[in-house]
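Lest this sound abstract, we think one record worth quoting, the chain in one-letter code, the fold tokenised, each line plainly labelled:

>
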Amino acid sequence: MSVRIVRLGTSRRDDEGIRIGTVRRPPRGVPKSEFATRDYYDVWFPVLAPTLDTMKRARAAATPAQWRDFERRFRKEMAEPDARHAISLLAALSHTTNFSVGCYCEDEQRCHRSVLRELLTDAGADMVVD
């Protein structure tokens, strides 16, 4: 069993399991009843999304130093009790079931899900590497 990191809105894999949206906002222009059928997410879990201010920093990051600033801020947010407990829960679940965690960003290396991948790995999650 394992966790897969995905881009929301992309086709699901057969063994992906439930898809968890770790985004601040739901997809625009998509009725809530269609989030899952359009391959966005089955469950919205914004506790693992960057705050609005941190998300804006990520989008504006044009240099490696600015990206590192985003990563530092996001890691600090993920060290808060609710987020830390959520990461621990997902890491534990990864040993018993398949599921995926995702965001809308096209490039994982310039997305908070790259940090989530590291945090989940550090928490002992079984990860799928595509």
Summary: The chain has a mean pLDDT of 95.
